[in-house]
């Protein structure tokens, strides 16, 4: 089981260059970064799990920060947890993702999700009730651009002509039943478990990125059943549990459930404090 790390990386925290180097030197498997473009001051959307951390309004662009991390490392994985796909132009986002994957020699994992902040999404022109369909549509459009041959796409929310576009993501396209191969980097969907999310994961992703919590074993069993019914290969399902605060027995429990990767939560603090936490987390590696 891989052990990685995440934090709300901001203009006030440890830098991505220093953090990436420290993670690689200490033997961590990867670095994952979340995304918010902005937080409207007038907001009615509740933050999942309580009070919103102030760092949400100060986050660095995950793709720019991960590009810096890629430039100073050679081994650790790089990922998003999560990319708010609905808030991006899909042609431009496809280029950013493929470029980062190319420059990091295929080390990118794309965590995607549907978001929680209606006001933020509205500023990007997102109609909230259709955001899930919008994400699915934009992922299909991006995969057309990532295809090995020029491929056109006509969807509900967007279209692209058959185009010459490079670089291509490093990971080979994955076959799936009843649809074109899934091109692009490993893609994990974040979100609360349930039949709808499980179906989406089996349909157009490579796995699940849940936030750690109770009841994970039962939910994983349900997801694996849906995955098998969709004709996907059992060994191809990848599960990365994120925002984990480690404690005695927790990582062993996840490993016993067949979790592939655990992403430990670091504090959104300066260099000295983050390094102290990394010193403590070293015992879990």
From TrEMBL:
Signal peptide feature range: none
Residue ranges annotated for the Luciferase-like domain, each copy included: 17-245
A GO MF label: oxidoreductase activity, acting on paired donors, with incorporation or reduction of molecular oxygen
Domain of life: Bacteria
Gene3D superfamilies registered for this protein in UniProt: Luciferase-like domain (3.20.20.30)
Pfam families hit by this protein: Bac_luciferase (PF00296)
Compositionally biased spans, kind Basic residues: 168-177
Region (Disordered): 165-185
Name of the protein in question: LLM class F420-dependent oxidoreductase
Protein source organism: Streptomyces mesophilus
């Amino acid at each position: 089981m891989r052990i990685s790390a995440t934090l709300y990386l901001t203009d006030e925290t440890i830098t991505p260059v220093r953090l990436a180097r420290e993670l690689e030197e200490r033997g961590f498997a990867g670095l994952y970064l979340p995304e918010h473009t902005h937080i409207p001051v007038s907001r009615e959307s509740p933050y999942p799990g309580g009070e919103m951390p102030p760092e949400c309004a100060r986050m660095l662009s995950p793709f720019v920060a991960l590009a810096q991390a890629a430039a100073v490392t050679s081994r650790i994985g790089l990922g998003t947890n999560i990319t708010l796909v609905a808030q991006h132009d899909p042609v431009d986002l496809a280029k950013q993702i493929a470029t980062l994957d190319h420059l990091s020699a295929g080390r990118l994992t794309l965590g995607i999700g549907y978001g929680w902040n209606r006001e933020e999404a509205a500023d990007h022109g997102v109609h909230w009730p259709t955001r899930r369909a919008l994400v699915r549509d934009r992922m299909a459009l991006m995969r057309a651009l990532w295809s090995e041959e020029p491929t056109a796409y006509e969807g509900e929310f967007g279209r692209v002509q058959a185009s010459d576009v490079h670089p291509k993501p490093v990971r080979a396209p994955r076959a799936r039943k009843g649809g074109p191969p899934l091109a692009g980097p490993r893609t994990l969907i974040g979100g609360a478990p349930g039949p709808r999310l499980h179906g989406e994961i089996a349909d157009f992703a490579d796995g699940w990125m849940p936030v750690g919590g109770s009841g994970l074993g039962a939910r994983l069993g349900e997801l694996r059943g849906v995955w098998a019914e969709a004709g996907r290969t059992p060994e191809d399902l990848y599960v990365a549990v994120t925002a984990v605060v480690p404690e005695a027995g927790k990582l062993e429990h996840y490993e016993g459930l067949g979790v592939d990767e655990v992403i430990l939560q670091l504090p959104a603090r300066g260099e000295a404090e983050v390094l102290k936490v990394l010193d403590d987390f070293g015992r879990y590696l």
